[in-house]
Amino acid sequence: MATEIAEIPAMIERQLTEGLEQYWQTGARWRTDNPHGFVTCARGTSDHAATFFKYMMETATGRPVASIGPSVASIHDTKLKLDGFVSLAFSQSGGSPDLVALQKATAKGGADTVAILNETQSPLGTASGTVLPVLAGPEKAVAATKSFVGMLVASLSLVAGYTNDVDLKMSLGSLPDLTRLVLESNWSHAITPVARASSIYCLGRGTSLAVAAEAALKLKETCRIHAEAYSAAELLHGPIVIADRKLAVLSFDSGLAASASVHAAETRLVNNGARVFSVNGRHGILPLNLPGGVTEPVLPILQAVAFYSFVETLSCLLGENPDAPEGLLKVTETV
Questions:
Q1: What's the pTM?
Q2: Residue 315: which residues within 8 A CB-CB, separation 6 or more?
Q3: CA nearest to 61, candidates 154, 175, 158, 171
Q4: Ramachandran assignment for 238, one of left (phi > 0), alpha (psi -120 to 50 degrees), beta (any other)
Q5: What is the DSSP string of 50-74?
Q6: pLDDT for the residue 284
Q7: CA distance 222 to 219
Q8: pLDDT for 91-129, tens place per residue?
Q9: Which of 61, 104, 230, 272 could be a cystine partner for 235, CB 3.0 to 4.6 Å?
Q10: How far apart are CA 90 and CA 108, in angstroms?
Q11: In order of start, what are the domains of the chain with their CATH numbers?
């Protein structure tokens, strides 16, 4: 896992060299096709990448993006009606039968099928009309890291192509150097409070909610720590009542429009006694070792990279095996 995290800057460079134009052209084709909206097909870490795509595409274009549960097709055999939609699948392996079943069902329902895959020669790739390679290279650790980051980069590129946003496309060129800086971030002061907490809340809003969801999953997968992800708004609709001194919070603030609500939620949590560690925020700051002015849309990518380095270190200090957590397989096949 540590090796693969360290490979992220080089992977992004490879994407920019070998994949960017295909991502851009696919987005540009969508602009011409003018779809009604998008549906996504994914599980686990890849589903968190789909969440990032959702918020980026919806806020940039106004086109709705909705997740369809794979069981709708794989178990219930529902006949979908998706004329004028794009079905976008996200997967590292492309091997889970339920994802393949859903992608085939969306195609039968009239959708334009596209897949963002690390393993392009896979059943999900075969079921998709267009395959966009993540270009992460071999990923052997059970807990996916670089393929997730690669999916976020691909998502930004697709949105840039759809909106013809040349500035966004150019901003991707800074990511290799920025991720190298992020890998030097020091979050050591959060290790003991997180390790000793009875539970963890991972907080986000908009695009950073995708990172919060991924952080909660990785804490469970690699550290055996119970963690849940919440929108800064959703937190106030109930979950905040159990926030006390036994709770630790990792808060991912992606800047700009969502910052005020994230900061307000952080303040409520602190007032309740929780230990709040804000990534690029105000309370118990977890530094990103970045120059000033880096905000959405690239900031969530950098937050994810910094968190991955932190959680791998935490897992090892807890005596766990982050490369191969007990009870998990690299390729999970569900129906």
A1: 0.96
A2: 1, 222, 223, 321, 322
A3: 158
A4: left
A5: HHHHHHHHHHHH---EEE--THHHH
A6: 76
A7: 6
A8: 999 999 999 999 999 999 999 999 999 999 999 999 999
A9: 230
A10: 19
A11: 2-176 (3.40.50.10490), 184-317 (3.40.50.10490)
